[in-house]
Amino acid sequence: MRKGVLVLLFILGTLFGLVFKQINAQSLSDQILDAREKIKELETEIVQTQKELGKTEKEADTLSNTIKSLNLNQRKLETETEATKKRVYATGLSISLLVKQISEHTGNIDRRIMAIAAILRDIQVLGPDSPLEVLLSDSTFSGKLDNIYSLEKLEGKVNDAIIELRNERTKLSNNKTDLEGERDKLLVLKAQLIDQHNLVVTNKKSKESLLSATKNREANYKTLLERKIAQKLAFEAELHAFESKLRNADLSNIPAFGIGVLKWPVVDPQITQYFGNTDFARSNTLVYNGNGHNGIDLRASLGTPIKSAASGRVKGTGNTDLGCTGGSYGKWVLITHNNGLSSLYAHLSLIKVNVGEQVALGDLLGYSGSTGYVTGPHLHFSVYASDGVRIDTLTRADGSRSKCGEMPISPLNGYLNPLLYL
Questions:
Q1: Residue 325's CATH number
Q2: DSSP character for 389?
Q3: Looking at the structure, do residues 274 and 402 belong to the same domain, yes or no?
Q4: N or C, where is the chain less crowded by C-beta within 10 Å?
């Protein structure tokens, strides 16, 4: 009687424990679902803001439109930051849920295996040790067969239960891999959150700087823009004069043209200016001198992640704005790939790699921005024959050196049309 009461209490305690744990786990699952729903709402808001930015970019380059663009970028960045916070929160909940499930199921499995072992010990004590001993016992023949059948059936069920529980434990141990994946994801998200905060600060400073320089007057903005254009034209003329004197690059080691040799550095790529003699290049002959645009421009609002187009090594990074604000590439990264090509990513807001670092295809190099000469945030993407490109400072005809500092430089034939490889 006492043993039966204890067993009943054990069963009831286990049931109540399971119900409580299930409620607790369900609460975590509900919170994860709520967080994911909020993330979807924020993502929808980001898409809408991006559409508004796209419309603004097509409007006239005025102070009011530039301020409008900065405000939209600010809203987008703040929404992206909020979405990342929610992802951090949801990932933390997922980790908690996985840890809880692993712990609970492992404990349940251990307790059940111990209970099965106890049943087997009881069988050893109360009954014969083997079918042979049953046959040698004083029972009737039919009773002997029933005992053997019952014993074998019970042992079979116990063995099946043990196998089932062990399989469950194996599945749960696989969750540990998921757990590590979620923890790695959490580290990435936290780093992204820091970057997004820095981008928000950068955008605010850009707006404050613009308002200060123009005193919020369109006429002052027009003067500022004309000054930047003149600086850009002067720099491009110097660059072309310098590069036209360099020896031609050896093109024998570049890969055959083909789609997929390089991958797009942004998601959902939209080209805003092509390589070579585009309409813009033809209308700015002083800048391009008939050689055209030396890369392609891709639409990329402030804070867009910029990824490596192929594996390789970071040959150099820099910021031309330190010497000639608004006159050149701004913040840039140059990657030397393993296939005879090199690629440039310019006008970045943040650089996330260091010189000499090895990068894989799709690794984060930085975030798009509006450093250097730009009329709005975008990515300038150039492809070179690696044999020709080097990092140097422009030297003028009179021997003086450009204030823009070091940057990628190549003989004219070393510039390749990126679209031949994307």
A1: 2.70.70.10
A2: -
A3: yes
A4: N
The structure's pTM equals 0.74
3-class SS of residue 94: helix
Dihedral sign of CA atoms 204, 210, 213, 218 in order? negative
DSSP 6-73: HHHHHHHHHHHHHHHHHHHHHHHHHHHHHHHHHHHHHHHHHHHHHHHHHHHHTS---HHHHHHHHHHH
Question: What is the Cα Rg of the chain in Å?
Answer: 34
* Secondary structure element (H or E) that encloses residue 122, with its range: helix 63-126
Q: What is the pLDDT along the chain (422 residues), one digit of tens a residue?
A: 444 434 433 443 444 444 445 547 778 888 888 888 988 898 898 888 888 888 887 777 788 888 888 888 888 888 988 988 998 888 888 888 888 888 877 777 777 777 777 767 766 654 554 554 544 454 554 554 555 556 666 666 677 777 777 777 777 778 888 888 888 888 888 888 889 888 888 888 888 888 888 888 888 888 888 888 888 878 888 888 888 888 899 999 999 999 999 999 999 999 999 998 655 544 544 344 445 789 999 999 889 999 999 999 999 999 999 988 888 899 999 999 999 999 999 999 999 999 999 999 999 999 999 999 887 899 999 999 999 999 998 877 777 888 888 999 999 899 999 999 99
Q: Both tokens of residue 370?
A: 């509006």
What is the secondary structure of 211-263 as a DSSP string? HHHHTT-HHHHHHHHHHHHHHHHHHHHHHHHHHTTSPPP--TTSPPP-TTSS-
Two tokens at 354? 């260091």
| Shared-domain flag, residues 169 and 279 | no
Hey, what are 170's tokens? 């194996």
Pair 173, 258 in one domain: no
CB under 8 Å to 251, separation ≥6 — which residues?
385, 387, 413
The C-alpha torsion from 35 through 41 and 42 to 46, rounded to 10°, is 160
Which residues span the domain enclosing 389? 251-420
Q: In whole angstroms, give the CA distance from residue 269 to residue 264.
A: 7
